[in-house]
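Good day; I would like, with your permission, to put a structural problem before you. What I wish to show you is a protein chain and, alongside it, a tokenised description of its three-dimensional fold. Please examine both parts with care and let me know of anything in them that strikes you as inconsistent. Thank you for your consideration; the sequence and its tokens are set out here:

***
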Amino acid sequence: MTSLEIKNINKHYGAVQALHDVSLSINKGEFVTLLGPSGSGKTTVLKILAGFEPVTSGQVLMEGRDVTALPPEKRNFGLVFQGYALFPHMSVYDNIAYPLRVRRQSKAMIDERVLAALDLVQLRKFANRRPQELSGGQQQRVALARALVFKPDVLLLDEPMSALDKQLRHDLQEELREIHRSLGTTFINVTHDQEEAMHMSDRIAIMDHGQIKQYDTAHQLYRRPASRFVAEFVGKSNVFQGEVRGSGSSARFYSASFEMPLADAQTGASTVMIRPEDAEITTTAPNDGRITLPVQVISSTYSGDRALYTLLQSDGADFIAYAPARSGVFPDGTDIFVSFASQDVIALA
């Protein structure tokens, strides 16, 4: 069931158009992430959802009800800011209680809800501390508890983990996923971190220049990107430009490096992609029907069980591929081969 719908939103700042006909449908209880580079429009969408920014045109619907013109305080949306936005003069307990006191809830109700929220984020023993006495991760948990304590219909997360170190980010991602599963509240997250988006989200909206380029599951975005931008933004990729000759089942793709069947592809200029994990590095050329390219090692990045190689093709273009690294890595300058199956090649629009 659709919980929240954005319909044909346009947003102008003077002569600059920040959003172009943005539409998005979010199901009740779904965890959706808006992912894109800086300036892509994702934070503008979040501000419009929160009621902090008016739209130039379009609608925001909550369970079929038009909330486009509703002020923030009447939307029942929780918001977690990038910078936490905690009150430094208040205790953790009072920070979390604040939204309930503004809503004039009873003392008994406030105490019950705040203690439950503290338990949810595992901070009950810190209830009487001030924010400045907590770590960054703990402060973010307080901000999360405050945003959830009044039981919002939707929780909006504005890059909540960007200020945390890698390990803290990973820990908070796990906790956030567990909280989402336990509450069933609709979560909408904004980030530029691909790993974070793919790790936590049911669906991801890829944004660029104020437009949604693709809206799908992490798996579909990675394995079936709708465009070169999505392919290169989500994960690592090797992109080949060329042309398709022939038609129907006889169509073939030709690039400077290789040719291969590409059934039913449209004749003319074409772009295809291969993910680095779908290629295999060998010291001799295999004879098993796969596409094989002679390459030279430019550099390698060792990560324990495997290494990521940057390889130089004969036409001067780079190719990246993973290989097991239990026995070490190939030295720079080594001549080797990289192979991949035609069925692992992804055609891009």
Notes: The chain has two domains: 2-231, 236-348. Helices lie at 42-50, 92-102, 107-120, 136-148, 166-183, 194-200, 218-223, 228-233. The first helix runs from residue 42 to 50.
